[in-house]
Amino acid sequence: MSLSCCRPTPATRNPRRPGSSRWQALAQAALYFPAIARGEVIEQRITWLPTLGLDLVLRMDGLAWLFTMLVLGIGALVVLYARYYMSPADPVPRFFAFPRVVCRGR
Length: 106
What we know:
- The protein is of the alpha+beta class.
- It has helices spanning about 20-30, 35, 60-85, 90-105; strands spanning about 40-50, 55-60.
- Helix 1 (about 20-30) packs antiparallel against helix 3 (about 60-85).
- It is flat, with a radius of gyration of 17 Å.
- It starts with 19 loop residues before the first helix and ends with a helix.
């Protein structure tokens, strides 16, 4: 199994559903549960500098999976709650811009 990036592409981004990429990432992480429960370590190796023998390796074991589910689950619930807490007159795109910047590290 391999890990894949959870960021939505422009074709899958849904402006009417803020936080939908979080739900998609949560669902993707949940699909790894059978392999994680068997004790497998999911790994993706990306060749970075082959002349120097350097690779980028992403690994997910049971503890990493647990924290992934916690962070994505709580984040998705916060976004869902915040969306329906705000009044229709509030600037929703501006509100969700800050958490997205923080989550993506940009």
